[in-house]
Amino acid sequence: MKTIWRYLKLTGLMMRNCFVRELQFKANFVVRFFTELMWLVMQFIYIGVMYGQTGEIAGWNKWEMIVLMGTNYVIAQLFEALFYDNCVRLTDQIRQGDLDFNLIKPINTQFLVSLRYTDYASVFNSMVGVGVILFALGKMGMAVSFGGAILFGALVLNGVLIYYSILFVLSVWTFWIGRSNNLMELYWQFGQFSRYPGDIYPWFLRKLLWTVIPMLVVSNVPAGLLIHKLEIGGIFYGFALGALFLSFTVWIWKKGLQRYRSASS
Asked: What predicted TM-score, i.e. pTM, was given to this entire model?
């Protein structure tokens, strides 16, 4: 318990440090916030155009699709807020030998390199996504119980950790290949699959997106919970897969460190 409190306290200090730094560049914060907001507006327009031609797509009506879109937006923004910048920085640290400064600190190195920086513009954007979800649920006349909200939050966190696991693994490949920037672009391509219902994809691709590249677990599972398109087995499967992917990051990080050449070597 003491160790957990220590890590929580350290996380709070790092986030406060980033918040102070963010206040020094207010214009950048505003630009980032409105850029992401415009992307969300474009998604609204896109869905409006699609459902202007049909009432359902793969069994999903307009407002159910907006719940999915909002859920995916919340997860993507929280991931970018907590992990994206850190994973991108990690590739440079490995390649340039700057990882030495983290390895000498008396704390879990994976924790430090994964959570050192926080993007507060993305934090605020995730709140907008929550508003979109509540708006769509209101249009459908659906309410969320307290327990349902807690479970939804846990599934959202699970989706964030799956995103993190995929990008972290792509970053760690720098230990083996020297430069993984192009490989990390795969993250953006994978992420596109999570924006749509799994039922629209062909059988083989759908199976792939539920297992090896679990983009459907990221957003379809929590969104399905809200609109009653999810069975209890899907909840357990989502959490189990998230735990498996997170465990894999720990294993591959340790393997990667064995190959690390510091700046002094």
From this structure: 0.91
